[in-house]
Design brief:
362 residues; alpha/beta; three-stranded antiparallel sheet; 11 helices; 28% helix; binds iron/sulfur cluster
């Protein structure tokens, strides 16, 4: 693996070509892609990429591809329907007890499958204005049903520790906000950003902080990234994972198993495995739902319960997240109940080997 270290983040296709991360023959197409969707490859991510492997699973996540120019009719700019549930700028209130709070529109890296790819990047507004921030905070303050605030984006860890500490304090000062969850890729993409100051900023009196780490391949969690995660957890911040099922990255059992085991070894509880969203130009990275279910079935059969994420689909349009199986319990048929007139339902339960058993009515 080529571990040439870069001095800075690469943002132009020509720079990717110069560093052996993209082919010169693709440059014209990649410039078209970059004109629409942001590109950023940090030194930490570049160091993980094997430049000699045309199918490298890390490169596939971050290096733009001409396939992104082919949009499908089913794809949409706001695939999970954030806008339909945004009462004020920066807030998405889709479920009763929690809101998304989108503070910034920039990330350390830009994932080629991102479901917010039309909204994130340096060309977009970089952060909420002071006025918009105050209005969003007011919304949270006046909605007493909000128990959890999820800081997402963009990546909230792109904010300075000082700004983040102030935001955490503002939120924790609201009595009904008990949980503040931060979704981030920074511990992997730029581990040095997870400094002692940053860790201190994430801990706050009056609310419990959780960090959800986005990673899709076990190789993302080596060296400095592991150390960054350990700094957060050692400080008492619990962590969960979120991953996206991606063709050519983690859509085979060995890769998925290794990713989930790696999370657990790093003390990160696997939380969500997202089915790929219908974001524009991402069809080449999506699997089918049937493939996702098959992988989950294999995972259930061979890997500890600690390593099991929920396989979920964000329903296009904004109806929310649903677990999408596989299903292990189904009604069998109706049979005459013993000593009773009438019929009762029995169930078919599938075990981890795929064998089916009958379970009696209660
Ligand atoms: S870090 Fe998250 S928001 Fe940013 S590009 Fe990747 S998936 Fe999108």
């Amino acid at each position: 693996m080529n571990r040439t270290s870069l001095a800075r983040t690469l943002r132009e296709p020509s720079e990717l070509v110069a560093h052996g991360l993209a082919r010169a023959a693709d440059l014209a197409d990649l410039d078209k892609v970059a004109a629409r969707y942001a590109v950023a490859v940090t030194p930490a991510i570049a160091a993980l990429i094997d430049r000699d492997d045309p199918r490298d699973p890390i490169a596939r996540q971050f290096i733009p591809s001409s396939d992104e120019l082919a949009a499908q009719p089913s794809e949409r700019p706001d695939p999970i329907g954030d806008d339909a549930h945004s009462p004020v700028a920066g807030i998405v209130h889709r479920y009763p007890d929690r809101v998304l709070f989108k503070l910034v529109h920039v990330c350390a890296v830009y994932c080629r499958f991102c479901f917010r790819r039309e909204m994130v990047g340096p060309g977009k507004d970089s952060a909420l204005s002071e006025q918009a921030y105050a209005a969003a905070l007011d919304y949270i303050r006046t909605h007493h049903e909000i128990w959890e605030v999820i800081l997402t984006g963009g990546d909230p860890l792109m904010l300075s520790p000082r700004r983040l500490a102030a935001i955490m304090a503002d939120l924790a000062a609201i009595d009904h906000v008990r949980i503040i969850r931060l979704h981030t890729r920074v511990p992997v993409a730029d581990p040095a950003r997870v400094s002692a100051e940053m860790v201190a900023a994430l801990k706050v009196e009056g609310a419990t902080s959780w960090v959800a780490l986005h990673a899709n391949h076990a190789r993302e969690l080596i060296g400095e990234a592991r150390a960054a995660v350990a700094r957060l957890i050692d400080a008492g911040i619990p962590m969960v994972s979120q991953s996206v099922l991606l063709k050519g990255v983690n859509d085979d059992f060995a890769a998925l198993e290794s990713l989930m085991r790696t999370f657990v070894e790093c003390r990160i509880k696997p939380y969500y495995l997202h089915h790929g969203d219908l974001a524009p130009g991402t069809a080449h990275l999506r699997t089918t739902l049937a493939q996702g279910q098959e992988l989950m079935r294999a995972l259930r059969g061979r890997v500890s319960g600690l390593c099991q994420p929920d396989y979920v689909l964000d329903i296009p349009g904004g109806a929310g997240k649903s677990p999408v199986g596989p299903v292990y319990l189904s009604p069998q048929d109706s049979v005459a109940g013993e000593g009773e007139v009438g019929k009762e339902t029995r169930y078919r339960v599938t075990d981890y080997c795929g064998d089916v058993h009958l379970y009696p009515p209660a």
